[in-house]
From TrEMBL:
Name the record gives this protein: Putative efflux protein, MATE family
The keyword Cell membrane is annotated on this UniProt entry: yes
Species: Actinopolyspora saharensis
Keyword flag Transmembrane helix: yes
Family, similarity comment: Belongs to the multi antimicrobial extrusion (MATE) (TC 2.A.66.1) family.
Length: 445
């Protein structure tokens, strides 16, 4: 592609974004089925699954740098015409994932009981959660290997194979889960075993893909150290998100059952639409990283502008759709009049934020593709500290309810929008070269 600001064809964006959306949606959909299967065992197993599943998600989501960070590094090398080195990033990320996963597995066996008891105070729910979690975390190394696999494959602009691998693993889990829980008689532990089986299959497919590429499989500590530097910033960024979101849920629960239930309804819709918008961000990551790897700052900036406008348009459409559904959709989640009366206090914030979210998530993808993780870390933590967290806890103190909580989210998103727009406009993120940390030019490759 020339140095002129050529637009990326919409078809090319969708070819990357749609399979990525399938991957992002597959896990939440599987969790819904898993919950339905275990739910028929009774309240205690379901509560144990909810707690154990939340802890597992918190651990795995803190390590998403294995996908996002690897995408940024692999995309640059791919754009520079160095596919073998791009795949090698996947090899080293897989070693890193396997090692960290084993460490998590060992630590979980030691600390699962005290952690769960701190959260529940002990009792039957704590026992159920601990039993499920100890089995489920056997799959931690496999989950992290799969994250690494997603990373390097997105970097070389292949989002179709990861979708196939995830569907294969989840398909096996979907078949095994009800069989192990009921006919085999393992109860809720059968759910955890099914999870591990599916995760193992997906990880094996990602490893096989590396072997097919004939990439060297020896660990390279230099590359892994560089990945960890990028990962440090992404972990801190994710921690800021989780602190805010857990605080919002906690304050809603302390305000009252109706408030907590209404917040859950609107929050789940927000989380689902975040997945939809994040698929566009994943496409932006891959394309921006490749453009910078080719040495084309102008192309990368053009892609950033184009994707941001697409995100804005997509967000406006989603906002209009959910504004029109305001009288119907909440009733699909609950028939409780008191809960439905609380929903509007969050609903219109949720609707109004969609265009902002569309731009924010698109620019997140652009800067992640450029490997600008340090700036994203600082911007996210600053927006959380100045906007979201103060409003959340003031809402509890002054009984502002959902309006206060979602005002906090709005300030958080506006803070992120402002900081991301300033960064995008500055152009300082668009560092060309096959690797960002060395400023290496394409000609040196």
């Amino acid at each position: 592609m020339s140095e002129t600001a050529e637009r990326v064809p919409v078809r090319r964006l969708l070819a990357l974004a749609i399979p990525a959306l399938g991957v992002l949606a597959a896990e939440p959909l599987y969790v819904l089925v898993d919950t339905a299967v275990v739910g028929h065992l009774g309240a205690v197993p379901l509560a144990g699954l909810a707690l154990g599943g939340t802890l597992f998600t918190v651990v795995s989501s803190q390590l998403t740098f294995l996908s996002y960070g690897t995408t940024a590094r692999a995309a640059r090398l791919h754009g520079a015409g160095r596919r073998e080195e791009a795949v090698a990033e996947g090899v080293q990320a897989s070693w890193l994932g396997a090692g960290v996963g084993l460490a998590i597995l060992l630590l979980a066996q030691l600390f699962a009981v005290p952690v769960v008891r701190v959260m529940t105070g002990g009792g039957d729910i704590a026992d159920a959660a601990t039993s499920w979690l100890r089995i489920a975390l056997i799959g931690a190394p496999m989950v992290l290997i799969s994250l690494a696999g997603h990373g390097w494959m997105r970097g070389v602009q292949d989002t179709v194979r990861p979708l196939r691998y995830v569907l294969a693993g989840n398909g096996v889990s979907l078949v095994l889960c009800p069989l192990l829980v009921y006919p085999v008689g393992l109860g809720m532990e059968g759910s955890a075993v099914a999870n591990v089986a599916g995760q193992t299959i997906a990880a094996a497919l990602f490893v096989r893909a590396l072997l097919v590429e004939r990439a060297g499989v020896r660990p390279d500590t230099r590359v892994m150290r560089a990945q960890l530097v990028l990962g440090r910033d992404l972990i801190l960024r994710t921690l800021a998100f989780q602190t805010c979101f857990l605080s919002a849920t906690s304050v809603a629960a302390r305000t009252g059952a109706d408030t907590a239930a209404a917040h859950q309804v609107v929050w789940q819709l927000w989380s689902f639409l975040a997945l939809v918008l994040d698929s566009l961000a994943i496409a932006a990551q891959s394309l921006v990283g490749a453009a910078l790897g080719r040495g084309s700052e102008r192309e990368a900036r053009s892609i950033g502008r184009q994707v941001s406008w697409y995100g804005l348009g997509f967000g406006v459409v989603l906002g209009l759709v959910f504004a029109a559904l305001s009288g119907l959709l909440p009733s699909a989640f609950t028939s409780d009049p008191a809960v439905l009366a609380e929903v509007p206090y969050a609903w219109w914030f949720f609707v109004a934020l969609q265009p902002i979210a569309g731009v924010v998530f698109a620019l997140d993808g652009v800067l992640l593709g450029a490997g600008d993780a340090a700036y994203l870390r600082t911007a996210t933590m600053t927006s959380a500290a100045l906007g979201y967290l103060p409003l959340i806890w003031l809402s509890l103190a002054f009984e502002w309810g959902l309006a206060g909580i979602w005002t906090g989210l709005s300030l958080f998103m506006l803070g992120r929008l402002l900081t991301l727009l300033l960064r995008a406009r500055s152009g300082h993120w668009a560092v060309v070269g096959a690797t960002r940390e060395r400023g290496e030019s394409v000609s040196q490759g």
